[in-house]
Amino acid sequence: MSATALFPTMSARRRQLAVGSALVLGLCMALVPSQARAATVGTYVIGVGAVPPSGQNIEYDDFFPRSGISVHNGDVIDLQEPAGASTDDTHIPALLPQNQTVQQAFADPANALIVPDSDEPGSNPLENFSVFGPTFPPAGSGAPGQCGDQTTPCVYNGTALLSAGLESPGNDFFVKLSLASGFTGTVTVVDFGHPISDPSASVSVVADSAATSTQSALDSAAAAQYQSDNAEANSAIAAASTPTVTTNANGTHNYVVSAGASSAHTEVMEMLPSTIHVSPGDNITWKYGGTSDPHTVQFPGVGMESIDVTPFALPAYCEGASADTLAAPNQGPPTFGCTNAAPEAPLLTSPQGSTMIQAPAYRLATANGGVYDFGQAQSYGSAASSRLISPVVQMLPTGSQRGYWEVTANGGVHAFGDAPFDGSMAGKAITAPIIGLVTGPQANGYVLVGSDANTYSFGGAPQVGKVLPHLASPLVGVVADPNPSANGPAAYAVSAGGGVFAILAATYYGSMGGKRLNSPMVGMAATADGAGYWEVAADGGVFSFGDAAFYGSMGGKHLNSRIVGITPTPTGHGYWLLAADGGVFSFGDATFAGSMGGKGLSSPAVSISTVYSEASSGVLINVPAGNPNDLSTRTSYTYSFPNAGTYSFMCGFHQMMTGTVVVG
User: In angstroms, rounded to a whole number, what is the distance separating the alpha carbons of residues 228 and 243?
Assistant: First the structure.
């Protein structure tokens, strides 16, 4: 196979700075050789990483080639990342000043990807925005001094650092060498995107009378280096793919597996193995197998109510003179919605959630405020002990699942666990009974919704106003869109007649509005990706729209009591229905964990919500002592699995790194 097949050439283009949730903290590199050098001013391609073999997730902490490069002063170097490299790559190629070594460059805190919060000691570490920006404005930006494309290369004179800033697949960064007259020696290129492995390339600047490299020779060296790097990676994969198993005195087992793997020049971005079969009661320890890329092992949350446990779950802040303030929601880099203030993007580095991964279950609420927990659900209190003057109509968990709200028809809000109380409409004038509450994953306020589509906002929630001017039938349920667009918050409401109404930035996927119904609608639920939803009727009929799949219903079957609600499983491949007598019906991958059916509730059941194991190992990485990227990390983390079932996990930094634990 030719070098050009391994490293396809792309037209020159530059990407503007993009961090935040796309930031994945230290990923890989890639290469692409170009045409042969001209007789006068030559252009040489040095690859920044490479395209992994088909079916493999390999990232390259390497330049292609990393040595054997001879050029003349005045020549142009094209630092090129091929289009087929991992979209998860973070490369920050830079040319060092002549007086700086590779070791000095990576030890300089100014070049670190992660920095402490300088004005708030003890806070979560921050992403270092400055290192992701280029030295000069990128070509195509229209800013004064823009450079970096083939027409206008950036000029390197050896006196200062020259950085391309954050590059991604398909990018080129052209640099013209303009050193002192008669200079001969070494120009060093590094990639600040990999601060632990310290990748670099050496470019020899030879006398004008001396011969320089040919591009074909560099292509051949790059291809040989690529084969060597892949052999290293495959050896690392083979060594990490078999779990180590020990047996406990009680007959359960401990499995040790690997989160990633690495070699001298590569990072394997895979969970090894990706499928792990264990028995109920067994433990699994994930050890850090990489060198330069951080990983987490997380069992992610679902839905808009989930804060999720990714390292990027914390909101961005705007730096203030006296205190930091939350940045505007749903705003991206580089400002994150901060005006006249520097943005801060904290990283969630510590473990989150439970170390016990259990089968998803549910929690019920009754009209008199009672709360009933099943499976792994934990009680944080209830409104049953309060002197309610209006019935509870909904219970909604917080994003962390360590609390919940109970909402009453007169607009009262009762907060338990870590659910914040931001106000209510109790004792105030409302135009129709309240049917529910919606909030975002960070619980920055909430919105109460009335059956007449009037809304009431509290805390940091947006002012929505009246959702609809006219309704053929009253609203009976409301849910947040689990995956709103960048246009802002979003939610759905359903009416008794089957109409579904997309609120703010939500997308409409259809409804039962205007169609013949055997029974009125009583509620709805959204899929985890926000691209679909279910409607449920009082007779147990279930209707699916968008990417919501139908897994069965109680429609046409005998019921002792009317259906009052629906809640999906974390996978979205199933759901539970709740009846007013406390009965629970399971469909798809929903597992029955018990109910209050037949137990004589003193007040009808009104709401059901999913409870699942949301957990993160925190950052797994082994940062050498003294490295400026040092942060609170660990090299292994253990989870236990008491219940049979199938549990999906992933890495919060590199979302192509996924796996499944099968317990049975």
Answer: 26
| Weakest mean pLDDT among 34-43, 327-336, 470-479, 578-587 | 34-43
Q: Residue 590: its pLDDT value, please? A: 95
Residue 346: predicted pLDDT: 87
Among 590, 553, 583, 585, which Cα is nearest to 568's? 590
Instruction: Name the DSSP class of 423.
Output: -
3-state secondary structure of 105: helix
Residue 417 and residue 403 in contact, taking contact as beta carbons nearer than 8 Å: yes
Residues 6+ apart with CB under 8 A from 190: 93, 94, 96, 102, 105, 106, 198, 199, 200, 201
Check pLDDT > 60 for residue 21: no
Residue whose token pair is 């993007």: 345
Return the closest-CA partner of residue 555 out of 575, 566, 541: 541
The Cβ of residue 518 has, within 10 Å, a number of other Cβ atoms equal to: 11
Strands 200-206 and 69-72: parallel
Beta strands 172-177; 162-163: pairing state: unpaired
Strand, helix or coil at 236? Answer: helix
Q: Considering only CA atoms, give the Rg of the chain.
A: 29
Of 219, 205, 266, give the one whose Cα is nearest residue 9: 219
- pLDDT band at residue 58, thresholds of 50, 70 and 90? very high
What average pLDDT does this structure show over 365-386?
Answer: 95
pLDDT value for 347: 87
On the question of a cis peptide bond just before residue 65, with omega within 30 degrees of 0, the verdict is: yes
Kindly write down the DSSP assignment for every residue of 539-582, as one continuous string.
Answer: TS-EEEEETPPP----TTS--SS-EEEEEE-TTSSEEEEEETTS
pLDDT of 488 above 90: no
Question: What strands, in cross-sheet order, belong to the sheet with 542-546?
Answer: 521-526, 532-537, 542-546
pLDDT digits (tens, 9 = 90+) for 415-440: 999 999 999 999 999 999 999 999 87
Decide if pLDDT at 338 tops 90: no
Task: Look at phi and psi of residue 337 and say left if phi exceeds 0, alpha if psi is from -120 to 50, else beta.
Answer: left
Cβ of 510: how many Cβ atoms within 10 Å?
13
- Residue where the block lists tokens 């796309």: 22
Compute the average pLDDT of residues 221-242.
Answer: 97
Tell me the pairing of strands 43-48 and 63-64.
Answer: antiparallel
Structure tokens at 282: 């067994």
- Tallying the residues shown for the chain, one arrives at 664
Whole-number Å distance between alpha carbons of 476 and 394? 11
Direct distance between the N- and C-terminal alpha carbons of the chain, in angstroms, rounded to an integer: 45
The winner for highest mean pLDDT among 23-27, 118-122, 147-151, 612-616 is 147-151
pLDDT in tens, 518-527: 999 999 999 9
DSSP secondary structure string for all residues of 579-618: ETTS-EEEEET-------TTS--SS-EEEEEEE---EE--
Two tokens, residue 474: 């009253």
Residue 222: phi, psi to the nearest 5? -65, -40
Is pLDDT above 70 for 31? no
Beta carbons within 10 angstroms of residue 603's beta carbon:
17
Cβ count near 126 (within 10 Å): 20
CA dist., res. 433 & res. 463, Å (int): 19
What are the b/e assignments for 141-169, b being 16+ CB within 10 Å? beeeebbbbeeebbebebeebbbbbbbbb
Nearest residue to 410 via CA among 422, 392, 395: 392
Paired sense of beta strands 298-299 and 76-80, if any: unpaired
Instruction: State the Cα angle at 131 between 126 and 132, rounded to 5°.
Output: 95
Q: Which tokens belong to 289? A: 């197998």
